Amino acid sequence: MNHKKSFWGGVITGVLAAALIVSGVFLGQSVWNLYQSSRTQETAAQNEEDGVSSNSVANAQTMNKLQVLEDTIDRYYLESVDEQTLEKGVYDGLVEALGDPYSTYYSSEELKELQDKTEGIYYGIGAYVGIDADTSLPRLTGIIEGTPAQESGLRAGDLLYKVDGEEVQGLELTQVVSKIKGEEGTSVHLTIIREGATDYLEVDVVRRKVESPTVNQKMLDGGIGYIQITEFDTVTLDQFTEALAVCRGSGMKGLILDLRGNPGGNLNTVCDIAREILPKGLIVYTEDKDGKRSEYTCDGTKEMKEPLVVLVDSGSASASEILAGAVKDYGIGTLVGTTTFGKGIVQRIISLSDGSAVKLTVSNYYTPNGNNIHKIGIEPDIEEKFDSEAYYNDGVDNQLNKAIEIMNEKLGSEQ
Q1: 20 to 30 Å CA-CA from 26: which of 104, 210, 310, 399?
Q2: Which of 210, 242, 270 is the last residue of a domain?
């Protein structure tokens, strides 16, 4: 590794200074002596010169230790090391030290990928993924038509045992998705468990650009409209209003809104969609660490008059819970399914001058009645556990059937 001094100088004077948390590194006595000497000499003077508080992580003592760690890695580590990888590890490590799974550092490349995703574009295989509650294995919950996943023969209901040879049982959903996604033209190897198969299925899928719709719509018997929202991205509002207009144009008498497996998304987007449904009043409010309250309201001009049933489950999180919580608090619809995930906090992406960014948890959110559902979730009005065997073997969605039953009762009582 060349130019180490200039590299670490750039760290302290650049856009973000951070500490790398390292455990289990053995320092040779001579290197440790070098560190001990460097930390006791000129530290206070250097901190004053750099304008950095001695209580800050980004002080001269930390920079000296980072330099020693890099020298030690360069001297003893078996493999070659890329400086940019080490630098990113510094930034990742600082944010990861918060112990918050929702706070993340993004390089400029990762930020661009995130922005593409919120616009309904990403590079992957074209499958929706959830976590199976019984096995803790990722399950393909849906396959987008015309995508590599469909072309490779993957099916909704398939369980992922390994991704590129690594077992994925027990991983967070975001970790699994990051392993599946990748650069266009690259291949990912999936080891699949399929109902009825006597052995694992080994499937190679070539990643490519996928334009993922976040809203699906259809009409069911009896004038019941069905709209599924898979995520709240910047494109979702237009897709939802179009789907709602199509349902109404087809003679919709009542709406089933499916938020199952929806992990959330953009706060402004879910509030805009709530304004297509809710009466006048509060949608949600947030409070930051200083107690500052921000309110998101609805003027009620587009309040939905048709009966409403909302499907939820343990995969309904964050923005999904904002919408479901408001529907429940106002009593304008019936929630059917199982208790939601329980993510009652809000993140903000803060852009940095070099094109990178950091996402931090900045506030709690509360439903209109003042409920914070973090790590609690929202209980449905009518509990209906999902029968995965019936769904993946026979195509029977018992939760949707229950929602249809309730909607028919609502429509019958109005006649």
Answers
A1: 104
A2: 210
